[in-house]
Amino acid sequence: MSSAIIVIPCFNEEKRLEVLQFRKYALAHPKHQFLFVNDGSSDRTGLILDDLQAAVPESFDVLHLSRNQGKAEAVRQGMLQAFQADVDYAGYWDADLATPLDMIPEFTQQLDQVPQLSLVIGARVKLLGRQIERQQLRHYLGRIFATAASTVLQLPIYDTQCGAKLFRVSHESRTLFSTQFLTNWIFDVELLARARQLEKFYQCDSLETTVYELPLSRWQDVAGSKVKPHDFLKAFFELCSIYWYYLRPALKKPFATLPVASSSDRVRKAA
């Protein structure tokens, strides 16, 4: 089984954190680890996470941020730490487990089976035989936003905002998280925009061949979400910022310098 670290951003998740579910999964999948990022929580989240780490230190680690910096920066800090470990894959998952943990092996299996893939994204597609439970208003607002994001990215992507993503560890994926995000609500779209820049400036493989959307078999809205309907309006303004900073045709400079591939990266890519 391939090894993986899953980053879990947490802000005031005391009442929603399913500790037992994490422990059960870790027991069944010893090569999959979790890195919880406590994003300056003001409730007992930090204490709960410390207890979890102390109980099973081989499976759980905690990164405490001194103040609340938002989900985008919490994920970025967690991913940078995850990339330092000797694992095959690193990704992030929503703390409320709207996407169940038992979907993780399907993500790793996809990366195992298709070596050219660099990223697997969960897609909330309501099909017969699948249990996708979303609030109707959020679903329709989400479809409008997804269409706009797809147009800006020039990528036929169905669901940019699902909180379950898994990256193959490489110098390219590290570069995507190397600098702070401009956005907070839609940093997932910004990640893809950054990847588009790597195509343009460094002739990396196209997203159409390296990104795979995995239709989820189960997903459900969990009470207590911090995303509200009016936040979709903010998201459209952030989408304009992404286009201007990363994707406009006259852009002459990339957001970051792509580092030289290490020997381990070259071996993994060749494999």
TrEMBL record:
Where does the UniProt entry say this protein principally localizes? endoplasmic reticulum
Q: What is its EC number?
A: 2.4.1.117
Q: What is its subcellular localisation?
A: Endoplasmic reticulum membrane
Taking every annotated instance into account, which residue ranges of this chain make up the domain Glycosyltransferase 2-like?
A: 6-170
Task: Copy the pathway line from the protein's UniProt record.
Answer: Protein modification; protein glycosylation
Q: How does this chain sit within the bilayer?
A: Single-pass membrane protein
Molecular function (GO) terms for this protein are: dolichyl-phosphate beta-glucosyltransferase activity
Listed CDD domains: DPG_synthase (cd04188)
**Carries keyword DNA repair?**
no
Keywords on record? Endoplasmic reticulum, Glycosyltransferase, Membrane, Signal-anchor, Transferase, Transmembrane, Transmembrane helix
Supply the Pfam families for this chain: Glycos_transf_2 (PF00535)
Q: Which InterPro entries does its entry note?
A: DPG_synthase, Glyco_trans_2-like, Nucleotide-diphossugar_trans
By its UniProt entry, which SUPFAM superfamilies does this protein fall under?
Nucleotide-diphospho-sugar transferases
Biological process (GO), any one:
protein N-linked glycosylation
Reactions accelerated catalytically = a di-trans,poly-cis-dolichyl phosphate + UDP-alpha-D-glucose = a di-trans,poly-cis-dolichyl beta-D-glucosyl phosphate + UDP
User: Member of which family?
Assistant: Belongs to the glycosyltransferase 2 family.
What protein name does the entry list? dolichyl-phosphate beta-glucosyltransferase
